[in-house]
Amino acid sequence: MKFLFVLLIFIISFQQLFGQDLQDPDNRQDSIQALNNSSISQEEYNRFPYKRLIVPAAFISYGVASLSIKDLKDLNESTRFEISEHHPDHIQLDTYTQFAPGVLVYGLNAIGIEGKHNLRDRSIIYGTSLLISSAVTFPVKHMVKEERPDGSNSLSFPSGHTATAFASAQFMFREYKDTNFLLGISGYSLAVFTGIYRILNNKHWLGDVVAGAGVGILSTELSYWLYPKINHLLSGKNKNGQTMIMPYYQKGNTGIGFVKNF
Question: 246 forms bridges with which residues in the sheet?
Fold first, then answer.
């Protein structure tokens, strides 16, 4: 479990060092204004902040390496053995805490602690993040076919619950990092809790959880980068049209619902 807390400290330290130095595409009001602003070139508009790939790339690389490198596989086994010695209770809180940071963003906005985006825009961003996360984790599970620690199936790698939890935590961070940094990073504790309980419940190896964290962070970073383009696509030429995009969770599946009136 100490390893996951080290990862948490690493994430927070990285965000403190680099978070304020990177130009966020979402700082522009919307994609249409950005493209019409002569001071912003098309190249700058499309530029992805590659420094934000460092943390998720490191996590995903570790997870992939844990599938084949003996020392890391041994760490998976020793972590499982250490946990089994304490006979932890298997509880299902991780089913709910994976969404907790995202729900907090909506709750905080509802009571007047506003984040970076309004209801529509943050729903597009969060929904896109969950969709990307699901689009990555589910196919990879079926391709890798790693057996779960409890032997229930061969869909262990990567951890989908952890991916959703860290996607939600990164979403909370991006919404509040400029106005309340401590509030922004608080979601990571819930994400780590989710990852820990996936291991405690004997559903995932340590490497699965670390890889899931990387997928989740990357999904949210991609969603913020894609947001101006998606917003431009959804806005279209009809300014009177209405669009509703909301994330959903049903029977273990996550995604986004989309309705547009023309």
Answer: 257
